[in-house]
């Protein structure tokens, strides 16, 4: 079933995160969040985050993650990996040509991927959506 596009108002200009600027109180255009956030619809899915291991990367417990399975995982990407059948969310890194998955929280040590029989990088996280009013 094809769902209709949902266009949401986009206020023109940018909101300063530093010093205030005069308000621009008008709607410039509309955007479709699917077009804005999803490059490859056939290979993109949503996933809910559980845990704090990626909190220093801005990925928080309860966030809604947008994951693209068509992207080629590169060092530094935050990925969904399957390690011997168990899912995890970590940053892909290499040290001396050895692949690791690293948490973005000091409580969690790096994961040496050589210790697993079956490793799959299932997708690359492209956006994390979370409430600012938790």
Helix and strand arrangement:
Elements: E1 7-11, E2 27-32, H1 33-37, E3 44-48, E4 64-68, E5 78-83, E6 86-95, E7 98-102, E8 111-112, E9 119-129
Antiparallel strand pairs: 1-2, 3-4, 4-9, 5-6, 5-9, 6-7, 7-8
Any idea what the shape is? globular
State which percent range the strand residues make up: 35-45%
Order of helices and strands: EEHEEEEEEE
Q: Ends: how far apart?
A: 34 Å
Count of helix runs: 1
- What class do helices, strands and sheet pairing give? mainly beta
CATH architectural designation of the domain at 40-129: Ribbon
**What's the total number of strands?**
9
Low-pLDDT stretches: none
CATH homologous superfamily (4th level) name of the domain at 40-129: Umud Fragment, subunit A
Major sheet: 7 strands, antiparallel
Q: Tell me the Rg in angstroms.
A: 18 Å
The level 1 CATH classification of the domain at 40-129 is Mainly Beta
Spatial order of strands in the largest sheet: 3-4-9-5-6-7-8
Overall mean pLDDT stands at 87
Query: What is the CATH topology of the domain at 40-129?
Result: Umud Fragment, subunit A
Tell me the helix content: under 10%
């Amino acid at each position: 079933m094809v769902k209709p596009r949902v266009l949401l108002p986009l206020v023109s200009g940018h909101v300063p995160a530093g010093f205030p600027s005069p308000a621009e109180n008008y709607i410039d255009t509309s955007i479709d969040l699917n077009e804005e956030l999803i490059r490859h619809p056939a290979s993109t899915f949503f996933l809910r985050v559980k845990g704090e291991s990626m909190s220093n990367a801005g990925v928080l417990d309860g966030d809604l993650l947008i994951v693209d399975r068509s992207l080629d995982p590169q060092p530094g990407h935050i990925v969904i990996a399957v390690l011997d059948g168990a899912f995890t969310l970590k940053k892909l890194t290499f040290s001396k040509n050895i692949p690791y998955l690293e948490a973005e929280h000091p409580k969690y040590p790096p994961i040496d991927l050589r210790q697993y029989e079956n490793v799959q990088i299932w997708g690359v996280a492209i956006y994390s959506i979370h409430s600012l009013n938790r």
